[in-house]
Structure formats: C-alpha cells, structure tokens
Amino acid sequence: MPDNRRYPKRPVLGVGALIFNRGKILLVERGREPLKGYWSLPGGVLETGETLEQGIIREVREETGLEVKPLKVLEIFERIVHDAQGAPEYHYVLIDYICRVTGGSLRAADDASRAAWVARNELSNYQITTGTVPVIEKGFRERRKSRAVA
C-alpha cells in the first residue's frame, strides 16, 4: 500500500518529543524529505493501531536509540507545506509530548542523519523547521515552571 504523505487526501497525524537533559533539548537533523537538512524534534507519523504514546516511544527509539516515557502533551499544531503552485504538498497535524529518557544510548538512526543536545541559547545556530522554536521555548518555560512547583 503506498504511503501518501505527499499531496495527501487528508492531514497526516504525527507525534514529536521534547526531551530535555541538563538545560539542553534533543534535536535531530532530518535525513529525508520533507525538510531534509532541517533540525526538528524527534518524531514521526503515527501508525495504524498505535496509540499516541506508543507512537512517540517508537519514533524516538527509531530516530535516536533512546527509550522515553511520555509525560504530557505540550502542543498540538499543523504544519502545511505548499508547493510552488500553492497546492498543499504536505499537511501534518503534530502532537508534541514532553518526554523523559528512561534508557538507551543516543545515536542518529532511521530518517535522522544527526542528533544533538542543543542549549537554548544555541538554537539560532541551527536551521530548525518552521514553528518548532516556539514549541521548544514553550517546553523550556513549562520545564522551568514545573521545577519551581516541585
């Protein structure tokens, strides 16, 4: 069965992970289209029969080698990429989770060509997918707020 992510009849559901470690966030460089060469949160498309949490666990493991526990949904947003004629070439509805690492060893794999822990003040040094930096900033704020309450 063909995978119709390009020029889809309906939006594609995806999941992403905000994973923090010592004041840094984990980013992966996309190794395939769409957005090859851009940095983004680890994640991907939900598979049929898979819960959102199962999908984020699988995607993070496939792209980074890390085992994670999804803690909470942080953001839901759409990424719509139009072609040169203005038609919607890609349309994703993305659900981003804050996750905690529970095991594994970091390594780029699957459709990620590189993985890196990035400090908040270094985000501008990376070509990051549109809409991702505000989500990362929200994650840093949420993390700081959670620590203040604890």
The Rg value, from CA coordinates, equals 15 Å
Strand content: 35-45%
Outline: globular
Q: Helical region count? A: 2
Poorly predicted spans = none
Run of helices and strands: EEEEHEEEH
The largest pleated sheet is described as:
7 strands, mixed
- End-to-end separation in angstroms reads 48 Å
The percentage helix is 10-25%
What average pLDDT do the residues reach?
91
Given helix and strand content, the structural type is alpha+beta
**Strand tally, please?**
7
Structure summary:
By secondary structure, this protein is α+β, with helices and mostly antiparallel strands.
SSE inventory with pairings:
Layout: E1 12-21, E2 24-30, E3 39-40, E4 43-45, H1 52-64, E5 66-82, E6 88-104, E7 112-119, H2 132-149
Parallel strand pairs: 1-6
Antiparallel strand pairs: 1-2, 1-4, 2-3, 2-7, 5-6
